[in-house]
Amino acid sequence: MFEVLLQQTQAAAPAIEPSAAAALALGLAAFGAGYAERGIGAAAMGAIAEDDSLFVNGLILTVLPETLVILALVGFFLI
Amino acid sequence: MSTAGGSNPEYVTARVKARKSALYGDEEYRKLIRMGPAEIARFMEESDYEDEINALGSRHSGVDLIEYALNRNLAKQFDDLLRWADGRLYDLIARYLRKFDAWNVKTVIRGLYSGADRDAVSDDLIRAGEFDDEFLDRLLDAPSIEEVVERLSGTIFGPGLDDAYADYEDTDVLVPLENAIDRTYYSHLLEGLVVDEATQQYRELLEAEIDFRNARNALRLAQTGADIDPAEYFIKGGSLFSASELATLAKNRDELVSKIRESKYGDDLSDALDELESAESLIRFERALDVALLKYTDQLGHVFPLSITPIASYILAKEREVDNIRAIARGREAGLPEEQIEQELVIL
Predict the structure, then answer these.
(1) To probe the interface with A, which of B7, B10, B23, B314 has the most A CB atoms within 10 Å?
(2) Cβ–Cβ of B18/A51 closer than 8 Å?
(3) For residues B125 and B107, is the Cβ–Cβ distance under 8 A?
(4) Which of A66, B53, B210, B312 makes the best surface tag, with the fewest CB within 10 Å?
(5) Where is this gene product found (chain B) (predicted)?
């Protein structure tokens, strides 16, 4: 009796709720984007320090990994 | 400085690549070859060397001005590298830049040997290595070569120089001392180099540098016909020669050439080797060695962009640039024809 009850509750409640999983995915995506930007940002700063005219290019390249977060955000709204 | 204390190759290589693209190319050299010393100085003032030319312009003129400006700029560039780098990258760059410590010690010893005055020697130093200004000044103040060796006893050069000094006293030529310095430098360069794929490539580059230097030394000895045992001046760490092999090869130039031709450097050096076989000119062979090394590092820099190799490639390229400008300025001063100066240049 008790075992059956246990099995039923396990089936009914997944370990992570869909919305929680989406939040987790978003967080991980943002973490990945941050890590990617670390390297790009450092290189961009180096290039800008040598040549001011590279500011725009550096800025664009630095924020490119932000697209990762935006895609994850799409997933978040689909759930 | 990153607070994490990690290595920051992204930042350093980005800056280094920007600087590297600003180095003089074919076209600039072609212009420079046609200029006199004063014009060269003005040309340099309009490019990267502005600060140095301005700072030294009131005290020196002509070729001296160019020479000192070049040395100072070189030191500044390499100090910058050390300032930018952190962590493991700093360690690797500092190791490589000890080359200038070796150079400075050699300059001081040569200055004392030839009896040059202190200021002249001081102007020739490249203050880019690990030794700080204070220590270099102490070396400059030393009254004799023995005293220089004494003052270096606490550094990495200490033990090697102590042994070489006895040789120097017997023979009264500088070769033993200079070789002791070179050997110390190279043995420290490879010591405890941690191996991952990029560092492995870097290690190969250093080995190539050592091999080329050994080959060059052996050829020079063979050329002069001096009765010196090449094995004594052999630098350890290369992959091509062993000490005993080099000793026998140095006596026979043809065999040495064919040995290099069969090695892994054969393809890169085939033009240089043809040159060496046909002509007696050692200078052109040495230039060809420099070009081959430069090409090799350049290519490595593209294979592993986030490692020390692009930085090493920049260091070598910058050194070559300084050598080239100096050769042009000196050549023009001595009134050499343009073609001959062109032969002296190392251009990729």
Answers:
(1) B10
(2) yes
(3) yes
(4) A66
(5) Cell membrane
Residue B171 tokens, joined: 């023979």
Q: How far apart are CA B208 and CA B169, in angstroms?
A: 33
- Asked if B178 and B138 count as a contact pair (C-beta separation under 8 A), the reply is no
* Three-state SS at A27: helix
Quote the minimal CA–CA distance from A44 to chain B in Å. Answer: 7
AA letter at B243: A
Amino acid at B51: D
User: In this predicted model, what pLDDT tens digit does every residue of B247-305 receive, in sequence order?
Assistant: 777 667 777 777 777 777 777 777 767 766 666 667 777 777 788 778 778 887 788 88
* Cα distance between residue B168 and residue B175, in whole Å: 8
Q: Which domains, and CATH codes, for chain B?
A: 86-192 (1.20.1690)
Report pLDDT digits (tens) over B185-230. Answer: 888 887 777 667 777 778 878 888 888 888 777 777 776 666 666 6
Q: Mean per-residue pLDDT for B224-239?
A: 69
B175-206 burial code (b ≥16 CB/10 A, e <16): bbbbbbbbbbbbeebeeeeeeeebbebbbebb
Per the structure block, which two tokens stand in for B304? 């592993």
